[in-house]
Amino acid sequence: MRSHTLAVLPGDGVGPEVTRAALTVLDAAESRFGFDTRRTDVPLGADHHLATGELLTDEATAELDRHDAILFGAIGSPRVPPGILERGIILELRRRMEQAINLRPVRLYEGVPTPIAGLTPERCDLVVVRENTEGAYVAQGSSVHVGTPAQVAVQESVNTWYAVERAVDFAYRLASVRRGRLTLCHKTNVLVEAGKLWTAVMESVGERYPDVETDYVHVDALCMHLPVSPERFDVVVTDNLFGDIVTDLGAVLQGGLGVAASGNLNLDGAHPSMFEPIHGSAPDIAGRGWANPAGACLSLAMLLGHLGEGEAAAAVEAATAAVLAGLPAPGGEAMGASTQELCERIAAAVADDATPEVPGSLMAQLAAVAAGRAAEG
């Protein structure tokens, strides 16, 4: 039997609720597809920080590093000042684990309501590949003359050929197993030096993928095109900050933050990749059963695809999409069912092999890309 090791970071707020839901769905996938996971809970988040003063310690890093993948819920609490948990755990974890890519699909599933009038699933199926370790998120900066009218804040943005090339190469690989189109999103008319580097990397790496069609769009133009004509895009590659912003806009198209998934990918297998819904910890609804587990379940599907469990990944995606299609609303009390009830429905649909696979499943495509990289390595 195939076996994988999984570190589980439930986190804060609704994080534990949606993570439990995803693990229930994972149980169903294991039973149907003949693999297993050995799971370890790792206590990182607000409660642990407030009790111990710890963020991401060397010991916790070593524990995570012993696993094949990480399933993450959400981090954040009004009891901890903004930036402490985010920088001290999330950004630090991405850096230590060399999670070079933040991968976020923007897909509208059949039957899921969207606020964009006239938008159909056929028109909304793209993936954003976000460089995940640099840009404005290197967390380097300084302030002087604090507390005076002369206060100055400097926040650094860093771009290296090495990190940009990793993101761009992965984006080309993904485009080559999808519809063969890759768009660079940046702001080259203002961020001139960074833009030059990104453009040069695109041209250099593109020589290895002659069958992939490429184009360029400014980030502000992308924010205009995305709600109006998302069908223009297949795979989009962009820097850390731009990727963070445009994918939240993308989540609106697909039904809201509660149904959006993401993966933080280590590309060489030296450290585990981490998968998480893109919604926050939502402490205002924690414990009420109002959190939609779809984002966590779709993140689980990405995790399975990355581990090479392509059939299970596609089944979890299909089951989640089928249950989403039957909801009167994508989140909150108006969903008409609790977090636990929804996860049980998704798990039952995974167990039922009559649930049709989503056409052009990203989860299966991830498995294909992972297999190609393994063959090369």
UniProtKB/TrEMBL annotation:
Gene3D superfamilies: Isopropylmalate Dehydrogenase (3.40.718.10). It comes from the Bacteria. Its EC number is 1.1.1.85. Keywords: Manganese, Metal-binding, NAD, Oxidoreductase. One of its GO terms (molecular function) is 3-isopropylmalate dehydrogenase activity. Residues 5-346 form the Isopropylmalate dehydrogenase-like domain. Its cofactor is Mg(2+); Mn(2+). This is 3-isopropylmalate dehydrogenase.
